[in-house]
Amino acid sequence: MSDDVSAPALFDIPEGYAALDWRRGFVRQIGPLYRRQNNGAFTMGFRVEEHHTNGMTNAHGGMLMTFADMAWGHIVSVETSSYWVTVRLTLDFLSSAHIGDWVEGGGEVLSTADDLYVVRGKIWAGDRLLITGTGVFKPIQRRDPRPGEKAYVTPA
Asked: Could you say which residues form the signal peptide (predicted)?
């Protein structure tokens, strides 16, 4: 007997998005996730599926919060080619995402003082703004740059 709740949903991915090949740990549980590079900026996205939802079939707040953490923290990966940790994440929930919605997220670096990256970000579905907020992230371990990333520069 299988412990699967439902078969994976089949859906179209917006143009330019590619699946992230993250198979370890927690990300394996919440995926699939996607990213796109457009004019040097990265956004991430996911389609709200049944396993992302709460009892009202909206995207669970914890899923949206996790997605914000990953989408905004991903900017640190791009800027530094390093693994990072979240120091602080502050979110304002403004609207809900529904099963089947394509959710996207991105942000911009406001500061890099003291090797802490302060990022202002947003999460949206179509023209609906779902979340705004800020995150503080710290690079912790260098690694080889991935496509589209910058080489790590040791802080002065």
From this structure: none
* Distance from C-alpha of 4 to C-alpha of 92, rounded to nearest angstrom: 33
Amino acid at site 137: F
Contact between 53 and 60 under an 8 Å Cβ cutoff? The reply is yes
The number of residues in the chain equals 156
d(CA 44, CA 35): 4
Range of the domain at 23: 18-142
Beta bridge partners of 44: 35, 105
pLDDT digits (tens, 9 = 90+) for 122-132: 999 999 999 99
**Residue at 94: amino acid letter:** L
As for how many domains the chain has, the answer is 1
Q: Within a domain: residue 95?
A: yes
pTM of the shown model: 0.85
Structural tokens at position 88: 């602080």
Residue 67 in tokens: 């997605």
Q: Is residue 3 part of a domain?
A: no
Is residue 65 within 8 A of residue 73, CB to CB? The reply is no
Coil, strand, or helix at residue 125? strand
- Would you call the peptide bond into 155 cis, given omega within 30 degrees of 0 as the criterion? no
